[in-house]
């Protein structure tokens, strides 16, 4: 195959989505500055996978929204999305945040880039390149991946309004309630879309999903793939069992895992553990168990560690902290720009075609 099949994967991480948004804004700006006609992300990737905040972004990019606008949407609306945090006692029974502001923001932004009739909301069918968006279906009690119509067997998901798919994949437990709605499909039937939860509970890093989709839905070999995987910043989760006031920690209850120091350690360790394991498995696919095999496919992973100088929770509202995270994205792009532009800046085979196999 002359041109590789190019996959973009974006992790979950709440408002920390400013990191991949800024990194991709740099990518688009660089292509535009070089006079490249196809400078937008969707024009340079054949499949975009995204979970949670990465899912919101994946759909936005695939609808043709520039990454710079996505970054500005995050930066300028963090306080609106997360300022309505419920009090300590209420959070024992209810999710921390109301979804109304996030829903309006996403719905309006998606619709602004869709030329539908009578103000129609765009659906997954209208994505300009293919998308795969993990969610967890509480109705069925199983993981699911919402997909645009890139295979004849995919007859369900492309009817779903894009903003509903985005709200489903970003319904993070304890942050937002499970997402429930209904929609009229393209055949005029009303369909329920009930109790959907953040895909980060099983695929916070959806890169492996994208690789398997390329193999099975597009009938490609590993050697045909070129993959860019972007994280949202990670805080190294370590605990040596030492309490601040004692020689050892004896209490690992709900207070430690969900409340102490205002940190939701349980959610962080689940997300990071899954993300790290995906990276381990991709390493085996790419270079074998002992890492002695030559590269089986092209793969770039970009992430940043959130140390004490930049501690950012998923529902952070401090704009200055978010700007620091954006600066980390600028640095990572500088460090990887040559490789990224060379590998992913020359258009794609499937973009804009809605081609099926």
| Secondary structure category | alpha/beta
Poorly predicted runs of 5 or more residues: none
**Cα end-to-end separation:** 15 Å
Number of helices: 10
Helicity range of the residues?
A: 25-40%
**Largest beta-sheet characterization:** 8 strands, mixed
Question: Any overview of this molecule?
Answer:
Strands 1, 2, 3, 4, 5, 6, 7 and 8 form an eight-stranded mixed sheet that branches. The longest helix has 26 residues, at 319-344. The protein has helices spanning 18-33, 53-62, 67-82, 100-112, 162-169, 200-203, 207-217, 254-259, 265-287, 319-344; strands at 5-10, 47-50, 130-137, 142-147, 179-184, 190-198, 225-230, 298-302. The two termini are 15 Å apart. Helix 1 links the parallel strand 1 (5-10) and strand 2. With 357 residues, the protein is an alpha/beta fold.
């Amino acid at each position: 195959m002359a041109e590789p099949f190019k996959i973009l994967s974006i992790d979950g991480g709440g408002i920390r989505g400013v990191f991949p948004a800024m990194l991709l804004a740099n990518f688009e700006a660089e292509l535009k500055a070089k006079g490249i006609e196809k400078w937008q992300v969707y024009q340079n990737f054949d499949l975009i996978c995204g979970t949670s905040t990465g899912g919101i972004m994946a759909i936005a990019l695939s609808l043709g929204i520039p990454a710079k606008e996505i970054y500005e949407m995050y930066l300028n609306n963090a306080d609106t999305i997360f300022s309505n945090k419920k009090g300590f006692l209420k959070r024992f029974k209810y999710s921390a945040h109301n979804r109304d502001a996030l829903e309006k923001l996403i719905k309006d932004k998606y619709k602004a880039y869709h030329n539908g009739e009578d103000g129609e909301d765009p659906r997954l069918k209208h994505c300009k390149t293919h998308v795969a968006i993990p969610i967890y279906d509480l109705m069925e009690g199983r993981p699911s991946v919402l997909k645009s119509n890139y295979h004849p067997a995919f007859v369900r998901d492309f009817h779903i309004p894009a903003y509903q798919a985005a709200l489903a994949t970003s319904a993070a437990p304890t942050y937002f309630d499970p997402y429930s709605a209904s929609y009229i499909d393209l055949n005029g039937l009303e369909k329920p879309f009930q109790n959907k939860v953040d895909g980060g509970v099983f695929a916070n890093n959806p890169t492996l999903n994208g690789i398997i989709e390329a193999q099975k839905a597009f009938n490609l070999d590993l050697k045909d793939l070129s993959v860019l995987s972007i994280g949202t910043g990670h805080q190294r989760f370590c605990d040596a069992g030492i309490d601040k006031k004692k020689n050892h920690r004896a209490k690992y209850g709900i207070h430690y895992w969900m409340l102490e120091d205002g940190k939701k350690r349980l959610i962080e360790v689940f997300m990071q553990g899954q993300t790290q394991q995906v990276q381990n498995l991709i390493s085996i696919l790419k270079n074998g168990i002992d890492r002695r095999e030559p590269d089986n496919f092209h793969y770039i992973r970009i992430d940043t560690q959130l140390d004490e100088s930049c501690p950012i929770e998923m529902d952070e509202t401090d704009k200055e902290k978010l700007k620091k995270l954006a600066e980390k994205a600028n640095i990572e792009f500088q460090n990887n720009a040559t490789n990224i532009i060379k590998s992913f800046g020359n258009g794609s085979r499937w973009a804009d075609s809605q081609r099926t196999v």
